[in-house]
Request: fold
Amino acid sequence: MIRFKKINLLFFIFLMAGSSFVFAGNEKQQPTETVSNRVSRLENREKIKYNPMIFGQFIEHFDNQVYGGIYDPGSKFSDEDGFRIDVMEALKELKMPIIRWPGGCFVSTYHWLDGVGPERTPVYDKTWQVEDPNTFGTDEFIKWCRKVGTEPYICTNAGTGTPEEMSDWVEYCNLTVGKFGRMRANNGHPEPYDVKYWSVGNENWGGHELGARTVEEWGPMVRESAKLMRSVTKDLKLFAAATSNKDWTMPLLKAAGQHLDYISVHGYWDPAFHVNNISPYLECMMRTERPEEDIQRTINILEEAGFADRIKIAYDEWNLRNWHHPWHGDFRRGFELEARRKNDIQSTYTMADALFSACFLNSCLRNADYVEIACFSPVVNTRGAIFVHPEGILKRTTFHTLYMYANWLEAYIVPVESSVEKLTSGTNSTNVLDVILTSDEAGKRYVYAIVNKDPKRDIDLTLDFEGLGKKAPKTLNGQVLSGKSPDDYNDIGAENRVVPEKKSFKVKNGAVTLPPHSLTFITVE
Reply:
């Protein structure tokens, strides 16, 4: 049995209190500072081709994400393999490039051999304290990924598992020879899966994790796991559980950095894990700049360690709101399993979620030379962008944010600087607008993605037509995601209040007017 060290609890407390898990009090909006809002293209800065893997997803064996979510044999919406067709079609709309599985905290007690072969034995999931039937395992995950058209990303068990168990899993997926390559073929899958993306562990820094590690243990664990895994597949893309805390990640990089391609960082900014006290719109807007602060701290660690040129950041779990699962990490207190149904309250997922998600993606894209992968957490149910129920699916507000970014941006980020007024709430403040600019390779077509966080006011923004080599037109076309109020949400059996709508913008003195609580995409041809 692995004993939990004091240092793990300290890291868990650090992250709860730090940038990724932030508490805020009830605050009232203050009048917004009035200044001229302007965005300008930065001269002498080259555009950056970003990695579309930033628009990835995550799925875990938690509650109804897998069973009753993406996998539901017997449902009238499922195919011959038990996969929900309506879910797969919706995910194709998102052009989902990559998906991380099977956890999450679940993976720290998951043994992959239990989930392959013709005979599956149900096991007790010690992490979430329910029985897992093991009917959805590696073979089912790969088949599902192929049907959806996405890249599989497997997270391994570095909690109760071993480096050899991790490398055996790589062998099962990628080889045609040896015990496990032959096992896959005997299970009816003669061709290798060629899984490229693998992670060593999940949140092993935290006292909540089964199989948590100390700082001194983690680096050597990752190093030896990486050596074994690369002995099977040389060119796999390898991740390891990290944080924006230098005290944890610097020793990891010193011990194992030469073997890594990514460090895995997680972030949730509305901590509702024990008590489902959902933060209101304005409090959420006050946190929209914190992901970029977290990214910058992580970049600083990579630069100091000398790995910024070859190790990239993967934000492979992120969402505004933490999953509700009381009392995870309190090992003397039992889980309240029925409380997990509170994740299904549709009124939770408002324009706050949609706009925070847009600001998060803007932060990743602005730092696209360092951030290459991000996985929205999770893809369905719980806090997911899609809610799956017996009679169909519901596209929550965040689905439409993800759809807009995956489908309507151009392929290059154009560096810009913004001068905008502040939105204030009590002693907190944030830029009222969050702006990025993208272009095609030739620089002939540009798309702005602009978040107006103000809950009530239209905001004018002056665009830089001269810097784009364009004349200011009389009108511009765009798409707007908003609602009648910042608290609007989509619900089952009701008219969807929050969906993208086409809009024509008048250009007056080089400026456009952005509606309140909105995400706006504007195209400049």
